[in-house]
User: Fold this.
Amino acid sequence: MSWGRSGTVKNKGWLLDLLLLFLLAAAAYVSSFKGAWQFDDFRCIVSNEALRSGSLAKIWHFSPGRFLVFLTFWGNYKFCALDTFWYHFVNLLIHILNGFLFYYFLLFLQEAAGKTEERRFPAFLCAALFLVHPVQTQAVTYIVQRLELMCFTFIVAHLIFLLLALKNKLFYIPAVLVLILGLFCKENMAVAPLIAFWGYFVFTSIDLKTFLKEKKKFILFAVAAFIILSLLVLRFAGVWKGTSFDFSPLARLYEDTPNVWEYFATQFKVWTIYLRLCFWPFGLRLEYDVPLEGFSSPWVILSIAFWLVLAVFAWINRKRCPYLAFGLGFFALALAPAASIIPNGLYEHRLYCALPGILIALVFTFFAKKNLYNAALLIVVILLFTYASFQRNFYWSDAELIWRDNLRYSPENFRVNANVGEALLNKEQYESALPYLKKAIELRPQTVEAHYNLACCLAGMGDLKGAREELLTAKKLKSRLPEVKRLVDEAIKEIDQALSE
Assistant:
């Protein structure tokens, strides 16, 4: 392949492609505008005093490594306060922009790889699937996950500028600039140089020994960029002194911190679930039941074997099927920060930056040729996905609705039961909330928040003595979260005062 040597691509009809992509995304996400605040939205936006103050210093102090995203939240707040419509509107605009950028990245990638046949067809299919794929709904409709959206914006912009730099070295300047800016969106940006490195190696079609010998400068740049970005991530995360990044969501997620090696071993199973969601994005939910297992588990061993076989197959066939090898590498590198050794949980929004890799591998390997069969098959899939995304977005309109949906798949999950109970409690539907909160405590007795919510529920029903017992139990369990301890102590004082009267 003549990497970077083909003529300029004249892609007639690109305006029609962009218009169709816009209409597909709008159809899939018009139902998202009624979405309510959910989960981390409250901590990061609704009750975030830094946004209200408008102080750049306070916004920076709240989360240095995600400063640019919180600036956009501040802009939203200044324009429309807490009207969720406009937050969803901005999220959708960024998502559509990402679809456009992904489309152009694929056009430039094919040109750089020397492809002479039809380029718009596979690029359009990949971009359309990216925009309407149902697994993307969590990243787009969950407002705070603008973090994922903007991270991908800068990742794909970085890759585009690097491709343009193959013809004009001046484009290395914006490539480095967007790499740095992306770091202020989300920490995943650190893998962008590695994705570029892998793509450059795959499409140059030379053996590893020659590549290491002839491309030393490029390798040093990619490795140095990854190391520097990773160190900055640690700095922003508060591992170094001088910052106050809030890790409370992880603490809230894992009241019992998992064993690191068991968690790591389980990630091989988790990756297979992520892969399944790329191909079969149905049965989506907030909480996936994936029990921790060690390296001796048969399922973990089978999962490791599967990924090793896939990796070997991609490596052996990287010259014959470069898009397959590049796509799988893209997927693995983009997913690695969220699904490796750091406890992060299995959440669909983690796939936002990784899904493009699978789409590249699938479409360019099996559906790149423009013919009636490929077009008909993928049009049906795109329309089906558009409808599925449209329907999925309705669940984000209410906390009770989305957790009840999850309850269908995980009736014995303590956190699902606890959150259904909390959603009903917030609506003051105490009798309805009671069985779910009791079930959560039965499944995990050491969960402080569930005892506190059950106490609130009992108090709402007039059972002050029962509420006090639950609060005392919560106090004995000693939550690691200061705000939970404070709430429990204050509630005990209020109950004691009410009982004394």
User: Anything to note?
Assistant: The longest helix spans residues 84-112.
